[in-house]
Design a protein that fits this description.
- With about 210 residues, this protein is α/β, with parallel strands linked by helices.
- It has one domain.
- The protein is about 30% helix and about 15% strand.
- It has a six-stranded parallel beta sheet with strand order 2-3-1-4-5-6, sandwiched between helices.
- Helix 1 packs across helix 5 and helix 2 crosses helix 5.
Length: about 210
């Protein structure tokens, strides 16, 4: 069952995650699948609940800060050493072997894949190499295809606003896209909380999906 997106979701976004910075690392199974855009959307969703406590890290030297609408350290964003949550873009590295940001100890990996047969096969490969990864499928038509890896509703539906250059604008996203982003952000922090506390469920009694 997918994570709720009602009032309880906001409680999760602001929940106590302990003293260490929580790292949410977003990586794609290929270039151009939406890793940077998803990282920006997740960062903005978490930052609304934790103003001044979220930092951005772009391991690709790309456009994460631009897509999120602010440079790291700017107004509304935390310096890396002062953040409660670090949202990071690792680009098209989900399938790469060896040392990558998604394989660092203690991170919550988000793997972005297209929601079609080839994309889901790549998602399965990524999941095999990244135990505990949260898989997010990007579906242009929001046709929810069954997959043993991708939970229901943890997908990002197509919205023309996501294709516009510059900062993603939450205020012009359609309701399905906004709800999807919120569900993804909440699920990432639920997994961070339960991993850090060792608890089976968090303060709201919710458990991670999968």
């Amino acid at each position: 069952m997918a994570r709720e997106t009602g009032p309880g979701a906001q409680d999760w976004l602001a929940a106590d995650l302990g003293t260490r910075t929580t790292r949410v690392v977003v990586a794609g199974v290929a270039g151009g699948v939406g890793a940077t855009t998803l990282a920006a959307l997740v960062a903005r969703a978490v930052a609304q609940a934790r103003p001044g406590r979220v930092t951005l890290v772009d391991h690709t030297g790309g456009t994460l800060a631009e897509r999120a609408g602010a440079a790291p350290g700017g107004q509304g964003w935390a310096a890396p050493g002062q953040a409660q949550v670090s949202v990071e873009c690792a680009g098209a590295t989900a399938l790469l072997p060896g040392e990558t940001p998604t394989r660092a100890a203690g991170v919550v990996p988000l793997v972005v894949a297209p929601w079609h047969p080839d994309g889901l096969r790549l998602a399965d490969r990524a999941a095999a190499g990244l135990p505990g990864a949260l898989l997010v499928a990007v579906d242009a038509a929001w046709v929810q295809r069954p997959s043993r890896r991708v939970p229901d509703r943890l997908g990002l539906p197509y919205d023309v606003a996501l294709t516009a250059p510059g900062a993603v604008r939450d205020d012009v996203l359609n309701a399905r896209a906004r709800d999807a982003v919120l569900a993804i952000a909440v699920e990432a922090l639920v997994r961070a909380h339960t991993a850090g506390s060792g608890a089976a469920g968090g303060p709201l009694g919710l458990r991670p999906i999968g």
